[in-house]
Amino acid sequence: MFDRKHYFYADLPNGYQITQQRAALANNGKMSFPVITPGKKVYYKSVQLLQLQLEQDSGKSLHDEQLKRSLVDLNRAGLPLMELVFAPDLETGEEAASLVKELMLILRRLQTCSCKMEEGALRVDANISIHQEGDPLGVRTEVKNIGSVRSISQAITYEIHRQLDTVAEGGAITNETRSWDAENRRTVAMRDKEVLQDYRFMPEPNLPPLHLNLKPGSKSTEELVSVAALSEEIPELPEDTRQRLVEQYQLNAETAIILVNEPILLAYFVNITRDLSEVPTKVTSNFLINDLLTYCHKSNLNVEDCSITANDLKSIVKGLHTEQINLQAARQLIQLLHTSPTAKVKELIEQHSLEQICDLETIEAYCQQAIVNQPKAVQQYHKGKAKALFAIVGEVAKISGQKANMKSVVACLEQMLNSAKK
Ligand SMILES: Nc1ncnc2c1ncn2[C@@H]1O[C@H](COP(=O)(O)OP(=O)(O)OP(=O)(O)O)[C@@H](O)[C@H]1O
Hints:
Elements: E1 3-6, E2 16-19, E3 26-35, E4 43-56, E5 60-64, E6 69-73, E7 80-86, H1 93-110, E8 124-128, E9 141-146, H2 149-168, E10 176-181, E11 186-192, E12 202-203, E13 212-213, E14 225-226, H3 227-232, H4 238-249, H5 253-261, H6 263-275, H7 281-298, H8 310-321, H9 327-339, H10 345-351, H11 360-373, H12 375-382, H13 389-399, H14 406-421
Parallel strand pairs: 9-10, 13-14
Antiparallel strand pairs: 1-2, 1-12, 3-4, 4-7, 5-6, 8-9, 10-11
Helix pairs in contact: 1-2, 4-5, 6-7, 6-8, 8-9, 11-13, 11-14, 13-14
Adenosine-5'-triphosphate is lined by residues 85-88, 125, 127-129, 137, 140, 142.
Protein name: Blast:Glutamyl-tRNA(Gln) amidotransferase subunit B, mitochondrial
GO cellular component, one term: mitochondrion
Family: Belongs to the GatB/GatE family. GatB subfamily.
């Protein structure tokens, strides 16, 4: 059912907002999602979804401190929006950011939201409180104006520490709304929330109640929307994809999480593994994640903005599998293809002589040279320090211009060094 919530503010031209106060669209849901913290093991967290309601968006107020004036952008005022209210089940900023990431993946799959936080298509308000273990929850503050997923985690982490410091200094937390200042990485007080507002709620006379049919197997009619019929239209959701990737392609959980987080990478993976069935799936996923994704991150690039085609990637993976090229050459190809998008992989390999050297005689000559150049490492190796081999392998890589086949080099060096020992 829909209700009117009345309040007076410049961003609300009607003087009221249509929302759902008495009977929201859904209650008591649950969401489970992976939490990824750099340097830590991935774990799954569960959060209760208290309520999902439909309401009208307001306009956007812009306060210009320097000119001492306020502007209001009414373009989005009155548009429908979906609000999700979660229970206070999360413990860190990373957990909150991971929850929002999962929500974004789901909403994008459903094609109900672009989820572009920078455009305000998805907005997050974070409620934060601290308490001693076993005690009830403390007084909460609400942080608004969070403009990116990274800011969610930063704002919450900041606010947790601010509250801890305040209490440690003998102060008290006030129930207030604060704003995230991304530039200075801190939250600043906006207004207090101590006074309960009377919104003069009333049933919305222009919108009749929405009737849902919850019976399994039911069909939608003009008067009744069938939840079962709607759920049949739901595409595969991110968690199901992760499980499918693990089962169908024998990938590990971390790899599946990364692929699902980057839909374009997942599309490449499916495309390449389908067309190159002879290549182990791990070769493809390793290349896409360790090389392509890493290159994009380093170049501050979204994977979808990297102008390398699926066919080019396929050629590189094939080259890696057949040992025509090695990993260094594959990395160089990514860079070359990105900077000259019309070039072809085959031509680039020729032009830049990226072909891997597998000829055994040449490799033997390189290894002999490397043994001469690295007497210290050879000595250590003979004394039983197996790791010293890396230095000699590195020398071969240098001599060969990173082109020697490393598998053959290691085998050749081991044979040479071990027979010299005897
Ligand atoms: N003590 C607490 N500590 C941390 N979070 C809390 C605490 N109490 C409630 N919350 C969380 O605060 C949120 C309350 O959101 P809700 O939209 O219902 O209220 P509100 O913030 O008063 O509304 P509005 O955003 O319209 O001002 C919920 O996500 C809830 O889990």
